[in-house]
Amino acid sequence: MYEELRKAVCDANIELQKQNLVIYSFGNVSGIDRSAGVVAIKPSGVTYDELAPDKIVLLDLSARTPKEDSNIIEGTLKPSSDTPTHLELYRNFEAIGGICHAHPTGATMWAQACREIPCFGTTGADYFYGPIPVTEVMTDDEIRSDYELNTGRVIVRQFAGMDPMKTPAVLVANHGPFTWAKTAAGALESMVVLEQIATMALGTITINPGQGPISKALLDKHYLRKHGKNAYYGQS
Questions:
Q1: Of 29, 91, 121, 192, most Cβ neighbours within 10 A?
Q2: Is 233 noted as a catalytic residue in this protein?
Q3: Catalytic annotation present for 126
Q4: pLDDT at 70 (0 to 100)
Q5: What percent of the chain has pLDDT over 90?
């Protein structure tokens, strides 16, 4: 019944490895059928060369507690340990249709440093409307109790008053990045671009430690020409 969703999520996970953004079984991509409230996600600990559409796990979006998150609709394997984080983002960011989590070197260094990634140039502005935010550091109680669910909650708090579709990425402090988009493939693309701009930002401040962010005029021009209501980038 969800063959197309499972294949899309499987393909995005495999591409995550092809883009050299993960090692071993690290990382995961999920997708959602909003009309049915069904989430498809990579199984926990399964390496990418073993992955196939029939191994993708289907879950009920309405399952709220960590125990209920393991209530599988279809699949014989355990879902990703990050499943509660994914579900919390789907519940709160209603426009997203896919989520990606990984530990690529560049973006993870910024997350471990608990530093947002400034938008220094037009490469970042083409995808993200401003800097990539970093969450607050999780408390000991948040870590000890429902850790993965609370990871989602700190992300949601970080985006209070923000449009998550304008900046479809976040750095979880001391942890790593999550990205999202309207599809699983789009969430993967956001992660690929995030890693590129993280690397470029590190190089920028190495060359010029005092470099400031891109101007508002240039940020608006590059972001809005691709994503604004009068966007003109690409083919109609």
A1: 29
A2: yes
A3: yes
A4: 52
A5: 90
